[in-house]
Write a structure and sequence with these properties.
The chain is of the alpha+beta class. Helices cover about 40% and strands about 15% of the residues. It has helices spanning about 10-15, 25-30, 35-45, 65-80, 90-95, 145-150, 160-170, 175-185, 190-200, 210-220, 270-280, 295-300, 300-310; strands spanning about 20-25, 50, 55, 85-90, 110, 125, 135, 140, 225-235, 240-250, 255-260, 285-290.
Length: about 325
């Protein structure tokens, strides 16, 4: 007679869905499961043991994330589950908070509240860092955004660091005072003087990491954008778009640059919307260019922008904060 299929408690499966499919032994036991049942799930290949005390239930995550963000968040969750009572730190903590701009591969990392030394669990890094308290994100302990930025910035390169800063500020996960304090604290750490310019390069207007990369690579080529998130009006004065990056040209026109930060723009419905948007931006006073996130990262966008601006004899301008642009007129 076949063995009846083991029924996993519904509450545990719901927990797994907000933890990218992962659950800990402690969570399973809290829902009434025994160690024998857990071993049975692994032997039957329904579950997979991914770290000491952590299992992959293969439940799909319910948060609206793309595959790369899902993989980043899974790494962040793994650290918290592998070390019960720990606080997620650094890049992993920022990922839990929903901050964009992390590298594709994120190392699970945590610290213990008492800063005691603990041996890491497989791929999980256990750090001895000071945190000013913690917050809970979907039931997991995480360093606060300001602390996480200070911990994360020295561990990643400039473009990722600034993208993380931009995203945290744009989402209002950190205020101006908190950001200034984080920058000050980082300056006291090894290499902090070198990274001072990274903090100064951050702009809260950036709405995607790709926009940050485009802005930085353009700045490195000597063509820093004149305006970020430029409002564009039609002939009647009605706003029809807000452009990621813009350069004001000597003849009164503008170079308008749009950055496609995600592959969603490849879908047919998105392509139609993007085409309509570009038609509304086009006019006798505007030049419109569009680039992918990859082109923003590798400098292709910056090289093309620099070539156009050289031809147009562009020079830097600082329009008022209330400036709006009309492609025609």
């Amino acid at each position: 007679m076949p063995t009846p299929r083991l029924v996993v408690p519904t509450r545990l499966l719901l927990r797994a869905q907000v933890q990218e499919g992962l659950v800990s032994v402690r969570q399973a036991r809290a829902e009434g499961m025994t160690d024998a049942q857990l071993h049975r799930l692994v032997r039957s290949h329904r579950w997979l043991r991914v770290a000491r005390g952590v299992y992959d239930t293969r439940e799909p995550g319910i948060l609206d994330l793309d595959p790369y963000d899902r993989r980043r968040r899974r790494a962040a969750v793994l650290g918290a589950l592998a070390h019960p009572g720990s606080i997620v730190t650094g890049v992993a903590a920022l990922v839990l908070h929903g901050v964009q701009g992390a590298p594709t591969s994120v190392t699970p990392e945590v610290t213990m509240p008492d800063r005691t030394d603990r041996k890491g669990s497989g791929a999980v890094r256990v750090r001895r860092v000071t945190t000013n308290g913690h917050v809970e994100v979907h039931g997991l302990r995480s360093a606060m955004v300001a602390d996480a930025l200070v911990q994360a910035v020295p561990t990643v390169g400039r473009r990722h660091a600034v993208a993380l800063m931009d995203s945290a500020r744009q989402q209002r996960l950190i205020d101006a005072d908190g950001f200034a304090l984080a920058a000050q604290l980082d300056r006291r750490r090894p290499g902090g003087v070198r990274r001072r310019g990274w903090w100064q390069a951050s702009r809260r207007q950036a709405e995607s990491p790709a926009e940050t990369w485009a802005r930085l690579t353009c700045t490195d080529r000597g063509v820093r954008p004149d305006v970020l998130q430029l409002p564009v009006d039609d002939a009647s004065g009605r706003q029809v778009a807000r452009v990621d990056l813009a350069w004001l040209l000597p003849d009164g026109g503008a170079l308008l640059v749009e950055i496609d930060g995600r592959d969603v723009h490849d879908r047919p419905d998105a392509v139609l919307r993007d085409r309509d948007r570009q038609n509304r931006l086009a006019g006798r006073r505007s030049l419109v260019l569009r680039f992918t996130g990859r082109e923003a990262w590798d400098g292709t966008a910056a090289a093309r922008v620099a070539a156009v601006l050289e031809k147009e004899r562009w020079h830097p301008q600082r329009p008022p904060a209330t400036f709006r642009f009309r492609p025609t007129g």
